[in-house]
Design a protein that fits this description.
The complex is a heterotrimer of chains A (396), B (332) and C (324). Chain B is of the alpha/beta class and 332 residues long. Chain B has one domain: Rossmann fold. In chain B, 42% of the residues lie in helices and 9% in strands. Chain C folds into 2 domains: 3-173, Thiamin diphosphate (ThDP)-binding fold, Pyr/PP domains (Rossmann fold, 3-Layer(aba) Sandwich); 193-319, Rossmann fold, CATH 3.40.50.920. Chain C has a 7-stranded mixed sheet, sandwiched between helices. In chain C, strands 7-9-8-11-12 form a 5-stranded mixed sheet, sandwiched between helices. Classes of the chains: A alpha+beta (396), B alpha/beta (332), C alpha/beta (324).
Chain lengths: 396, 332, 324
């Protein structure tokens, strides 16, 4: 038995329609005879049969459009008995094209080019990444790029800016750095000497914050996008409204809480320097405003153009460790402040929710408290309040 | 117009006669098979069949030696087989396999064979004529005794390159035999609809070269006329234009619905099928028996089946070799 | 010697050293060459080797291909790129394809010399710069000798190539004088050349625009901008490495190309800089090309249409506004 199939009748033919059969079942056909007229996209073509024999059965009626290769009729070849359809030698049953080589386009010989990214010291960063880095006050030289060839991408810059301790700013001149170091040393030593520190910590489930941020940021342009760092700052500020004794100073033997909340942000400088300028009225700024203020602060801290008021007025300080940091920080209070809030690295850890173990992004929040102004109980409640606020990020 | 005459004694030796018949039959069956496997998607792109024109391809080829150059067109299966490229090599080429004469790079329209001095295979009508002129120029400058056969169709006569090439070959007295296979149609346009003057052989005189026209369905006439033309050119007299008046029984290509010819016209020409005509005469002359004929048919069928099997089983060229053979040093 | 004399000297040397070499084209013999390049060569080498061809570009370029196939080393001269369109079929469909199409059996060692370019008030049909179109085609090499030594050396190297080589001679360069060391022999046809090292911007040019780029570089130096000038020399295959190396150093690139801006060779160079020197760029790559207009006859219009030294200066100064 031979299968008569819809033939390929032109370079771009994919299907055809039988218009009319010139033969019917039972008719004898000879090799070379026209057996049917087929309509293609371009024209009507007379189709010949390549077998001599008798038509057993017509399978496709006129008017039906079928793909090239579809069996149109069965022909019993002359000299061969009627039997179930078997692949004939003349016309292969399934004209599978000889295994076409997979369309693998070979890579063109690589053009030998000079080492990428030019002179030594010039970092590979995309133009867009550079632009954002400048805006956010991130030094691309300190970043590890995840783009092709280690190039720093937009995302790399955004991720780096997600921390409050921004990339260290340009190193101040050597003697200025030395002087700053000296000042910090004195201050820290004094703090540890004079302030009786206590420490409490709380592990905060940040999943709600992160989920809310993702959605919120879809609505914002790249420059306006919020980093979770400012969410933390706002939460601290709002929590302080409930615990005013943690917001302010200890001066000459007694507490002097501040009516205004100015959260100081610890920014490390390259060369070991540290500044902690304030975000004024942190509790009153919207997250968007805080984001802007924060960026501006970081830029000026890097450039060394902070205002003295910014440096002297924080009513509390928040310190955070970047992506490279550890899970918890128990810092030293900046005198004459009475508290220091610390945030560790956000990590994914097992958590229990509704009796199930789930993976959640967690942050360890710590409070270093001046035991003269507050005690561990109040400090702990503050952290609990902070946690509570962070579970409703939309309200911040 | 030259024709062979019916003499008492056959004008051809039996061995040669059987050879000529068999060559034509080979082409005919090869083309029929090519059409068949094309409809089965084993051959892709364009397919231009030589059916009906076998006498011109085979007859003219007798005038050329292994040392001569052959230039053909996209309707080249007949000339390629007549020249001696194997059916296996050609079928594999059309199947796009690495074992094809052009490694699968050319397909039906671009056959090349260096050893047999077969220089293609041109898809641009008229494109091969200047190449033939150049080959002849090289031979003349290097004092080679060979000549160049340049096959082309009636359509090419309309292209500027025909006129430029004839003029240049005549001007520089180059050894080219211009062979125009006039099948009366340039794809779908009849000769009288695109040529102000339809006598193609008459177009040589303005360029100063001699010409002839011959019945392309009569293989002995073709052979005789081609030998005459070749002899003229071998004498260092410059080029010659030989018009071979023939007809293709099939459409221009597999995709052509053949709407521009009548069935009657085709049937008329089929009565002058070069294979049928020659066979009849051979029988009349007692040179061909039924068993000769049957044997011929069987031999040809076997050869073509083998060619198809070879093509089927041949590997394609690896895609990783895509950029080879574009440029760069040549292995000698 | 002048550029034209350098080409002539190279032709002479080639004709003398290899009997397979012959020159074929319109008016190369009796007329002495439309640009006087082949002056006196007919008397020296005879009509078989210095062949005047009829006005049949397709036939004689195709004949060049056939002759190369047949063992000769033809130098085909197409009078100008404007007339080369008549031979485009033979070039694109035969010269460039025969090697690959024949499965590597045949190669076409043909050299084609073509005069090119505008700037002589010859109007729209005689002022084309189509090197970019040729540089688009796989299977051929495209060279643009812009200096007198290259006019000499590149032809000699081209004759050693197994594949078709197209040499574009900008018509305004013919009278330019220079030094040629005839003992130097064949020139490199793989690399671009840094004609003037610099640090602030890469001026990339070829053929007729090299001179303008060099003039611009001098003027820029007076403004305190140190320009590096690169002569592409080889348009296909482009020497990407030299281009990238330069931009990696200067971070700014201006490409000067006499072709029309849209789809120009400059666009290809720009794409390659973007692909390979992305991180080095401090500014977008600039292109100084011909305006989108058929080249006009009147001098002031033609000057406005073609790339100019002022145009190059403006392009550079826009890239680095703080330099001034």
């Amino acid at each position: 038995m031979t299968e008569f199939r819809m033939p390929q009748l032109g370079a771009d033919m994919t299907a055809g329609k039988v218009i009319v059969w010139h033969k019917k079942a039972g008719d004898r056909v000879e090799r070379g005879q026209i057996i049917a007229d087929v309509e293609t996209d371009k024209a009507d073509i007379e189709v010949e049969v390549f077998t001599t024999g008798v038509i057993e059965k017509i399978l496709v009626e006129p008017g039906q459009r079928v793909p090239v290769g579809t069996v149109l009729a069965i022909i019993r070849e002359e000299g061969k008995p009627s039997a179930a359809v078997a692949p004939s030698e003349e016309i292969p049953a399934a004209p599978v094209p000889a295994a076409a080589p997979k369309l693998v386009v070979p890579r063109p010989a690589p053009v030998p080019v000079a080492a990428r990214a030019g002179e030594a010291g010039r970092v590979a960063a995309s133009p867009a990444a550079r632009k954002l880095a400048e805006e956010l006050g991130v030094d691309v030289a300190t970043l590890t790029g995840t783009g092709p060839g280690g190039r720093i991408t937009l995302e790399d810059v955004q991720r780096a800016a997600q921390t409050l301790t921004t990339a260290p700013a340009a190193a101040p001149e050597p003697d200025r750095a030395a002087r700053m170091r000296q000042a910090i040393a004195t201050s820290m030593a004094r703090s540890k000497r004079e302030i009786p520190h206590y420490y409490v910590s709380q592990t905060v489930d940040m999943s709600r914050v992160m989920a809310w941020l993702t959605e919120e940021n879809l609505r914002r342009s790249v420059e306006e996008r919020l980093l979770y760092g400012v969410v933390l700052l706002k939460a601290v500020a709002l929590a302080l409204r409930e615990f005013p004794e943690l917001n302010g100073f200890w001066i000459e033997g007694k507490g002097a809480p501040s009516a205004d909340i100015h959260v100081g942000v610890a920014i490390s400088l390259r060369g070991g320097g540290l500044v902690a300028p304030a975000l004024h009225h942190t509790d009153r700024q919207s997250l968007g405003e805080l984001m802007k203020s924060f960026r501006d602060l970081v830029q000026r801290a890097r450039a060394g153009t902070l205002r003295s008021s910014e440096v002297s007025e924080p009513t509390i300080t928040v310190t955070s460790l970047g992506d490279q940091g550890v899970e918890a920080v128990f810092g030293i209070i900046y005198p004459p402040q009475v508290a220091l809030v610390g945030f560790g690295k956000m990590v994914k850890r097992p958590w229990v929710a509704d009796g199930q173990i789930v993976a959640r992004p967690l942050i360890t929040a710590t409070l270093s408290g001046d035991h003269r102004a507050t005690d561990g109980h109040r400090g702990g409640l503050f952290l609990t309040a902070l946690d509570r606020l962070l579970q409703q990020p939309e309200k911040l | 117009m030259a024709t062979s005459t019916m003499a008492e004694r056959p004008p051809v030796e039996r061995e040669h006669a059987l050879f000529l018949l068999r060559e034509m039959l080979r082409i005919r069956r090869f083309e029929e098979k090519a059409a068949e496997v094309y409809t089965q998607q084993k051959i892709h792109g364009f397919l231009h069949l030589y059916i009906g024109e076998e006498a011109t391809g085979v007859g003219a080829m007798q005038a050329f030696t292994a040392d001569d150059n052959i230039v053909a067109t996209y309707r080249e299966h007949g000339q390629a087989l007549a020249r001696g490229i194997t059916a296996k090599s050609l079928m594999a080429e059309m199947y796009g396999k690495a074992t094809g004469c052009s490694h699968g790079h050319g397909g039906s329209m671009h056959f090349f064979d260096k050893r047999l001095r077969f220089y293609g295979g041109y898809a641009i009508v008229g494109g091969g004529l200047p190449i033939a002129v150049g080959l002849a120029l090289a031979d003349k400058l290097q004092n080679h005794k060979r000549i160049t056969a340049c096959y082309f169709g009636d359509g090419a006569v309309a292209e500027g390159e025909f006129h430029e090439s004839l003029n240049l070959a005549s001007l520089w007295k180059l050894p080219v035999v211009f062979l125009c296979e006039n099948n009366l149609y340039a794809m779908g346009t009849a000769l009288e609809r695109y040529q102000a003057r339809t006598d193609i052989s008459a177009k040589a005189a303005p360029y100063g070269l001699p010409s002839n026209a011959v019945d392309g369905m009569d293989i002995l006439a073709v052979e005789q006329a081609a030998r005459q033309a070749a002899e003229y050119v071998r004498g260092g007299n410059g080029p010659f234009l030989l018009e071979l008046r023939t007809y293709r029984f099939r459409a221009h290509s597999m995709a052509d619905p053949d709407l521009y010819r009548t069935k009657e016209e085709i049937e008329q020409w089929k009565k002058r099928d070069p294979i049928g005509l020659f066979e009849a005469r051979l029988r009349e002359w007692g040179l061909l028996s039924d068993s000769d004929r049957a044997q011929m048919e069987a031999d040809v069928a076997a050869e073509i089946e083998e060619a198809c099997a070879f093509a089927d089983n041949s590997p394609p060229e690896p895609v990783d070799d895509l950029l080879k053979d574009v440029e760069g040093p040549v292995e000698s | 010697m002048t550029y034209r004399e350098a080409v002539r000297a190279a032709l002479r040397r080639a004709l003398n050293s290899d009997p397979r070499v012959f020159l074929m084209g319109e008016d190369v013999g009796r007329y002495g060459g439309a640009f006087a390049v082949s002056l006196h060569l007919l008397a020296e080498f005879g009509p078989e080797r210095i062949r005047d061809a009829p006005l049949s570009e397709s036939a004689f370029v195709g004949a060049g291909i056939g002759a190369a196939l047949g063992g000769m080393r033809p130098i085909v001269e197409i009078m100008t790129v404007n007339f080369s369109m008549l031979a485009m079929d033979q070039i694109l469909n035969n010269a460039a394809t025969l090697r690959h199409m024949s499965g590597g059996q045949f190669n076409v060692p043909m050299v084609v010399r073509i005069a090119t370019g505008g700037g002589r008030q010859l109007a729209a049909q005689h002022s084309h710069s189509l090197e970019g179109w040729y540089a688009h085609i796989p299977g051929i090499k495209v060279l643009a000798p812009a200096t007198v030594p290259d006019a000499y050396g590149m032809l000699l190297t081209a004759l050693q190539e197994p594949d078709p080589v197209f040499l574009f001679e900008h018509a305004t360069l013919y009278p330019v004088a220079g030094e040629v060391d005839e003992s130097a022999g064949p020139a490199d046809i793989t690399h671009a050349a840094v004609r003037r090292p610099g640090t602030d911007v890469s001026l990339i040019a070829y053929g007729g625009t090299l001179g303008k780029a060099q003039q611009a570089a001098q003027l820029l130096a007076e403004k305190g901008v140190d320009a590096e000038v690169i002569d592409l020399r080889v348009l296909r295959p482009l020497d990407t490495a030299t281009i990238v190396s330069s931009v990696a150093k200067t971070h700014r690139a201006v490409i000067v190309d006499e072709g029309w801006r849209t789809g120009s060779l400059a666009a290809e160079v720009s794409a390659r800089i973007m692909e390979n020197a992305f991180d080095s760029l401090d500014a977008p790559v600039a292109r100084v090309c011909s305006a989108e207009v058929p080249i006009p006859y009147a001098k002031h219009l033609e000057d406005a249409a073609l790339p100019s030294v002022d145009g190059i200066l403006n392009a550079v100064l826009q890239l680095a506004p703080h330099h001034d």
